[in-house]
Amino acid sequence: MNPLLKALRIEVREFCVDNFVLKQIDEIFVQGDFPRQDYSSSYPRRSLVEDYYSFMDWEQKDTIDNSERRA
Question: Which of 3, 32, 44, 59 could form a disulfide with 66 if both were Cys (CB 3.0 to 4.6 A apart)?
């Protein structure tokens, strides 16, 4: 993965973890039609974001376009 995209991915994850509750994180990704697996962890917000990320290809322009539409 491109180093800049990797850094962006981490920053988006940490922004979500620091600023939103689980329901808000879920709603953000659901509105963008991103699928996810069930999550479970001692860090549920971080795990929820990572579960959505597992279905995303940050190298694809459509992924970035979807995330911009939700913002």
Answer: 32
